[in-house]
Amino acid sequence: MSRSPDQQPAPALRYYEDVSPGGGTLPPRAWHAASSAPRLSLNGIWRFRLAPSADAEDDSFARPGYDASGWDELAVPGHWVLQGHGSPAYTNTGYPFPVDPPRTPDENPTGDHRRVFDLPVDWPAAGAATLRFEGVESCARVWLNGTELGTFQGSRLPHEFAVGHLLRPRGNVLAVRVHQWSAGSYLEDQDQWWLPGIFRDVTVEHRPEGAVRDVFVHASYDHTTGTGTLRVDAEPGGRVSVPELGLELATGERATAPVEPWTAETPRLYAAELTTAGERVPLRLGFRTVAVEGGLLTVNGRRVLLRGVNRHEFHPERGRALDPETMRRDVELMKQHNINAVRTSHYPPHPAFLDLCDELGLWVIDECDLETHGFHAVGWRGNPVDDDRWTPALLDRAARMVERDKNHPSVIMWSLGNECGTGRGLTAMARWIRERDPDRLVHYEGDLSCRDTDVYSRMYAPHEEVERIGRRAETPLLDRELGERRDRLPFILCEYAHAMGNGPGGLTEYQRLFETHERCQGGFVWEWIDHGLARRTPDGRRYFAYGGDFGEELHDGNFVCDGLLFPDRTPSPGLVEYKKVIEPVLIEGDGAAGTARVVNRHDFADLSGLAFTWSYEVDGETLAAGEWEVPPLSAGAAADLKLPDPPVTERTGEAQWTLRARLASDTAWAAAGHEVAWARLPAPNRPPAPVIAAAAAPRRADGRITLGPGAFDAATGALTALGDLPVTGPRLDVWRAPTDNDNGAPWQPEERYGPIWRGLGLHRMRHRVDAVETTDTTLTVRSRVAPAATDLALAVRYRWTATADRLRLAVSVVPEGDWSCPLPRLGVRLGVPASCGHARWYGGGPGEAYPDTRAAARVARWELSVDAMQTPYVRPQENGARADVRWAELTEPSGRGLRIEGQPVFWFTARRWTSERLEAAEHTPDLLPSPDTVWVNLDHGQHGIGSQSCGPGVLPEYRLEAAPAEFSFTFSTLG
Ligand code: IPT
Question: In the chain, N or C terminus with fewer CB closer than 10 Å?
Answer without folding.
Answer: N
